[in-house]
Design brief:
There is one protein chain. The protein is an alpha+beta fold and about 160 residues long. About 20% of the residues lie in helices and about 40% in strands. The longest helix is centred in the middle third of the chain and has 15 residues.
Length: about 160
Amino acid sequence: MITKETLKTLTEEWLQGQSGYFLVDIEMCDDDRIVIEIDHADGVWIEDCANLSRSLQEKLGDELGDYELEVGSAGLGQPFKVEQQYQNHVGDNVEVIDAEGKKIAGTLKSVDGRTFVITTQEKQVPEGKKRPVKVDVDKTFSMDEVKSTKYLINFK
């Protein structure tokens, strides 16, 4: 019986030999599928997914049995799952759904451990003025407390 820990160990061993790649997720599905997601700051090459798949098949052999193994990249518009994805998107536009379900869009300014900061624009009325103006406001979040964070694709 293949365990998630075994898959994680074998995947991370393979990733150590690949500059810049990291493990995002391993999912053992009810329909006998194993889905492994990897990522890289510069994108994931299909050849590397195929090489990882072959490596796992060689090491696991008959243990794979009736499992269907899928190795792919973390989707570009999918929520971040690991800290490295946050690190890779510093300076990019992101959308955060906070613990209350409120959407907040802004620029990912920094990441420190499991905490990150986005800069967003809010309307504020300056003292002595009648009309609001947009100002940059930094908001700090914990990765453990937000519902999701994802990269905002810009087609401009």
